[in-house]
Amino acid sequence: MATMASTCVLVVLSIVNIVYGTSEQPDQGFFLAVTSPEVGRKASNIYVYAIQTDVRFDDGTFELSKETGLVSTSVKAGALIADGIQWGCYLDVGLPSRFAGTRFGRYTGDFTPDNGGSVETRYTFVRPKSKFLDTRGVYTVTAYPESEGSSKLAPIDPIGVVFSGCRSYRWCKGKKRLRNTGPRLALTSVEDGGLYTISRGSRSKQGWYVQILVIIASCPEGSAFTGGTCDTRECKNGGILRDLSSDCICTPFFGTSDCSCVVPAREDDLFTLADTRNGEELYCRDLPGGNGKCKGLLVCYGDNYGCKCTPGWYGNGCEQPCPKGRWGANCVLHCPSEEPDCSRFFGPSTNLRSNGCS
What we know:
Layout: E1 4-10, E2 30-35, E3 38-39, E4 46-52, E5 60-66, E6 75-82, E7 85-93, E8 105-113, E9 120-128, E10 140-143, E11 159-160, E12 169-173, E13 176-177, E14 184-185, E15 194-200, E16 209-216, E17 223-226, E18 229-232, E19 240-241, E20 248-249, E21 254-255, E22 261-262, E23 272-275, E24 281-283, E25 298-302, E26 306-309, E27 313-314, E28 320-321, E29 326-327, E30 333-334
Parallel strand pairs: 3-9, 10-16
Antiparallel strand pairs: 1-5, 2-4, 2-25, 4-7, 5-8, 6-7, 8-9, 11-14, 12-13, 12-15, 15-16, 17-18, 19-20, 21-22, 23-24, 25-26, 27-28, 29-30
């Protein structure tokens, strides 16, 4: 089947000139998101979103595509509009009448600005529900060098699937087949970066596979490449340093230059993905197929951040609430001992602006 692609033009619909972040919430630029990131053979529609919040661009063209192709009659494209702003585009991918596995795999989004800037590319993933291909919610992994300039990686958990008794796993890195690999693969060198595909033998031709993107950072964890060297820089609340930059990429709901504050500080059904200085906001509930608390939403900023569930959720489908005492994107952060029942979305109460954070 031919490659599927959908194009739509970003047109600013309101008098405000541009879509961009506030002084509290840094521009995240162009990013992709998907709901649901894990689907079965008979699951309902999935939605892939391309969202632009960067101050540099007034308008441009989005293209969403999938390398393995999709049945065209099962795909619909539309503009993502909220608060009088066109934030980007989305694909509504229904269940094909044949070859349900064609929905699985990596989706690519390109944004080409009309004012002459460079093309930006991001990825997101959709995988099958399968006990044999269970990666426990891992879509991307960021690995860091052991020291500045080293080709050896700092210790990192192996990637792969949970062993379920199946021994017929097949691994490929890019288009190259790997030999002698079981359910897990150790990462030891900066050469181990790239896109890995794990399948069950011949079933991969039917789309039954999962993919993990390994991102290799240029500097050790907790440091940024500035002034020709790697210097220490802290991003709070699960934020990640951009590669070759001292800027933080904040998880959804968080802002300021070091991701120290919640934007906005509330736990109702208004969970902000992006906003403008004129007050227009994009909420998870504004997304076609979305819901108020961002359940089931995988957000992919690329760079060193990769893809993570929105704060408060984890799992292959980003639909499992954080267990008690855990919070943040993919639920990887721990509540402080003095507040063991902190918000699974926003963490300790000291993050909230009403408690002195501004």
